[in-house]
Design goal:
disordered N terminus, single chain, 21% strand, 4-stranded antiparallel β-sheet, alpha+beta
């Protein structure tokens, strides 16, 4: 049963005075070292309500050192990829395989060619060539992100609803978390997730769209033939901190019991500690649907040239990417030749001098044609 809104806001004073359990609120030891570019620190920050505060600042890598990712889309109809939450006819969570893609084709969304090869494109370097393609994004090891989490959470006047690709928080593994990925119905293309519920942003860094440490509970509940092999599953474990500073746990309490009295955002106050926290649900996406606390201003930034948090201000799959057609026109070469040269030299991050040599132009001319990285 949801906790009444007036009761939720009345616990604010108690939250501020209650004893803090381990990992109850974010600190410099909260995020795994394997994800950090440099040690975490406590910095002055400003909350969105204008209050001055202190935040834990985490500068994280494009991918933690020990995290395995993928697969996302399958190469052919005979292969099996990750997962997708389909919101059209026959809506539900599916494993991305031949049966699912054939079902979409019957509805007019054909993601494969006559040979059963799945259409896909790397959003970091190219655009789609077919009406419906799987979106992939190659990693960029140079990209870094900085996230700010308040160390003393403050309740907001009203919950902040989370829409598509809204900022949710940071995993204890150092991976950023965002709400639902864009719908195929809106974008025509599919930014597939792997079976742990993450994928690579157009900026070249990996992020979650689920509570990855409890995603197998969702598969069991929704009868999906999948499991997360890359992240240890524990429904009672803490998974993350939301951007408002409150912890996110799996679908069970620390003692294994089912949480009670959850509010509209999926959280409640712990009966023993008096500290508010969120819980994952057993349906997809198993993340909070809203945030009850106040987040810090400018709480997510990245050095990436595209995607969520970039200076181009383009969020999510479908964010800004190099327009190879426009670049090719500037260079006086065919778009297909430019795309082929980039792929031949390793795709994103390719040595531009080598790409230029393949095209028979100068490296300086090629560099000048591409948009500058921020």
């Amino acid at each position: 049963m949801a906790q009444p809104a007036h009761q939720l806001w009345l616990v604010t004073a108690f939250l501020c005075s209650a004893p803090v359990a381990a990992f109850a609120h974010a600190n410099t030891d909260s995020v795994a070292d394997t994800a950090l570019v440099e040690p975490a620190k406590i910095v002055d920050c400003t909350l969105e309500n204008g209050d001055t505060a202190q935040c834990a600042a985490y500068e994280v890598k494009y991918l933690p050192d020990t995290l395995e990712i993928g697969p996302f889309c399958p190469a052919t109809l005979d292969d099996v990829g990750g997962i997708w939450d389909w919101d059209g006819e026959n809506a539900g969570l599916y494993r991305i395989d031949g049966a699912f893609l054939s079902m979409l084709s019957d509805m007019g969304y054909t993601f494969y060619d006559e040979n059963g090869v799945v259409n896909m494109f790397d959003i970091r370097v190219e655009g789609p060539e077919a009406d419906h393609e799987c979106i992939s994004a190659s990693l960029d090891s140079e990209v870094k992100m900085t996230l700010l989490i308040p160390v003393k959470p403050v309740m907001a006047d009203a919950p902040q609803q989370l829409g598509t690709v809204s900022k949710v928080g940071i995993g204890l593994d150092g991976v950023p978390i965002f709400s639902d990925a864009p719908s195929v119905l809106d974008r025509s293309h599919m930014p597939a997730l792997d079976t742990c519920g993450g994928h690579v942003d157009p900026g070249g860094w990996y992020h979650w769209h689920t509570t990855a440490t409890d995603i197998d509970t969702v598969y069991s509940n929704e009868d999906v033939a999948a499991s997360c092999e890359n992240v240890t599953q524990d429904p009672s474990a803490q998974f993350a901190y939301a951007f408002d500073g409150f912890a996110i746990y799996g679908s069970r309490e620390a003692n294994g019991s089912e949480p009670v009295g959850l509010d509209q955002c999926g959280g409640h106050v712990d009966a023993e500690t008096g500290i508010y926290h969120y819980h994952a649900s057993d349906t997809f996406p198993n993340l909070p649907s809203c945030l009850v606390g106040v987040v810090a201003k400018d709480n997510f930034s990245t050095t990436a040239s595209a995607g969520i948090g970039s200076k181009n201000a383009q969020g999510g799959p479908g964010g800004r990417r190099p327009d190879l057609t426009a670049i090719a026109a500037k260079l006086g070469v065919a778009t297909g030749d430019l795309r082929s040269a980039i792929k031949a030299e390793g795709g994103p991050g390719a040595n531009l001098a080598q790409v230029a040599e393949r095209l028979g132009i100068s490296a300086s001319k090629l560099q000048a044609a591409f948009p500058r990285r921020p």
